[in-house]
Amino acid sequence: MIRVMYVINESGLGGAEQSLLDMLTAIGSRVSPVVIIPSGGMIEERLRQMEITYYIVPFETDYRRIGLYSGQEEAAVYRKSFRAALQLREIIRQEKIQIVHTNSSVSNAGAIAAMMEKIPHIWHIREFLEEDFDSEFVNKELKKELFACADGMISISECIRDAYQRKYHADSICIYNGLDRERFLESISSEKSGNRFLLAGNITPGKGQLEAVKAVERLAMQGIEVHLYIVGTAGNDWYRWLLKKYVREHGLESCVHILGFRKDLRSLREKCGFAIVSSRMEALGRVTIEAMLAGCVVIGADTGGTAEILGQDGSRGYLYRQGSDEDLARVMRYAMERKEQNREIRKTAQAYALLKFDLNGFVGKITGLYERVLEHGEDTLAESRKELLQRLYRQYEAVKDTDTDGRPMAGENTDKSLLRGKMIQRWLSLKLEGKSLADGLLQRGIRSAALYGMGYLGCCLYDELDNGGIRISYVMDRRPVDADGIVKVVRIEDALPQTDGIIITVLGDNRDLQKLIEAKCDAKVMLLSELMDWCENGEDL
Question: What pLDDT score was predicted for residue 537?
Answer without folding.
Answer: 76
